[in-house]
Structure prediction request, 451 residues.
Amino acid sequence: MPPGTTKETNGRWLWLGAGCVLLLLVAMLMPSPKPQQTAKPAQLWSATRQRNGSAMTERWAAAHAHRTRTAQEIVAAKLKKFGVKRRALVHNLAELYKIDVRPDVERFFDALDKGDWEETHRLFLSLKQELDSPGSDLRKYWRAILEADGAAEQVQLWPPQQLLDYGNSILDSLKPGMVYIGGTDAGCFICTMLNETTEGEQHLTLTQNALADTSYTDYLTAVYGVSISVPSQEEEQNAFSQYTQDATQRAQHDEQFPDEPKQLLPGEDVTIVDGRPQVSGQVAVMEINNLLTQTLLQKNPDLSFAMEESFPMSSTYAGSEPLGPIFELRAGDSITTDQADQAVNYWQSEAQNLQDEGEISSSALKSYSHDANSEGNLLANNNFLAEAGQAYQTALEIWPGSIEAITGLTHVLAQQGQFDQAGAALDNFLQQNPQESQTVNNLRQTWLTQH
Prediction:
C-alpha cells in the first residue's frame, strides 16, 4: 500500500472491493441499457438555505442541547429522521425507474424506524445477497439503503456525543454552497446523516470511493439532478482504459528491470492473460476513482469541494488547502507557511481536547487519527515535511496503532535524512504494537535502506 494507506477506516465504502475492477472494466466495455423512464431524471434533492441563524449555530445548539434532550436522544431522533428520508428516496427512485419496492426493503426501513439494529442489519445483509441476482432491480435504489444502514452502524459504534462532535466539526468547517466528498465510513455516513437532519444549510454529499460504479453516478444524477455534473459512462470507461494502460506499462517495467525500484504500488495486481491486461485490487479501484475525482472537478468548475480523505490520492493535493479537520480542493496555487502551521496547531489542539475529555471510543480515536494523518499527507505532498511529520506524530498520539501514521512519519523523516529519528519512531511503534513486527520490518527496508 502507498504511504498513508490503511485498511481499517474504509470498510463498506470500498464496496467495489478487491478484484471487481476487472468485472467493472468488462461491464464498462459493453453496451449498457438506458434507465427505463419517461422523462429526464428528476432532481430529488433540493438545497435548504440557511434560516434563523447560521448552520454552525444550529448544529452547536443541537449538539449541546443536553438540558432539554440528551445526546443519545438527539442521535436517535436524527437516525429515525434520516431513515424516513431514505425510505422516501427509495420510493422516489422506484417511481422514477417504474419499478416496485420490494417488501423486504420495507421491512428493513420498518426495523430501522423501530431502532432494531440487529434486525435492520440482518435484513441489509440479506438484501445485499440479492443485489445482483437475475431480474433484481435493487441496484436502482441500493445506495439509499446502503446509506441508511451505514448511518445506523455508525450510531452503534460511536457514543452519541462523540458522534455529534465529530460530524459537526466537519460540517461546520464547510463553506456555504460547498460540496462535501466523504471518504471513510464515519466521514461519509455520519456527516450525511447529520447534514440531512439539520435545519441549517444542507450540502451536497457524495463519496469518491464509488465513482467507478455506473450505478452510483446514476444515483447521484437522479438525486441531485442538475446541481452537479457527474462523470458519464464514457468518461468512466476512459478512466478504466487510462489506468489499465498506465498500470500495464509499470508492470512491464517491473518485469523487465527487476533490479530497479518497483513502479507498481503495493496492492496493485496486474496480470497479462492471452495478451490482454487484467487489473484488480483495492489500490487499483482507488486509482481509477482518483482519475474520476479529477473528472468530477473539471465538470463542475463553479462549485467548491471539500474532501475527507479515504485513501491517499496524490492528484487531489495540488492546489488543496487545510480546512479545519479536512481540506478544500483546488483552493489555491500552494499552501502557505502560515496555513501549514495552522493545520499542525489545529490537530495538536484536537489531540489535547481528546485527551482532556477522558474516555474516548476507539471508533472516534481512529477517525480523528485518520483525518490528522490525511492532513499530514497534504502537507507532505506540498513539501512541508517538518509540519507533515508533526501531523503524523499527532495522529500517532491520538491512535498509537495507526499504521498509516507511522508509515507517513517514517517516510518524511527519512526524506529529511533523519534516519535515527525514523528508526526510533519505528522502535517506539513496535514496542506499543508488537503484532506489527512485519509492518515495521517492511518500513525499515522500504524507507530507511532506500535512502
In short: Residues 1-9, 15-42, 46-54 have pLDDT under 50 and may be disordered. The first helix runs from residue 20 to 28.
